[in-house]
User: What shape does this take?
Amino acid sequence: MVRVKRALMTKKRHKKILKATKGFRQLNSRVFSRAKNAWMKAGTNAYIGRRLKKRNFRRLWTVRINNAVRAEGSTYSKFINLLYKKKVTLNRKVLSNMAISHPEVFKKVVAFVK
Assistant: This one.
């Protein structure tokens, strides 16, 4: 039977992980066993962060819309409810950007739903 030596693939795999962990602190960028754990943890945190980013942006849009609507004499919850009743299909991101960059158009939207 042929003898299989694994050094080449092992070295390739190790180099891939060490390259990915370049810039990590302490031994996490130099020692393979530590680097592999740090790389896996970084991947987990990145996955969690991608979900948190969506949540945080939605909160930001809500706050911006609330501030803009209160200036018009209403509240966020009443405004969103009226949007649904009037079947206006603008999402929170668009409404937030409109409130900041085009306040006169936003005022027209608020007047329309009242």
About this structure: The domain at 10-113 is CATH 1.10.1900.20 (c-terminal domain of poly(a) binding protein). The chain has five helices and no strands. The chain has one domain: 10-113.
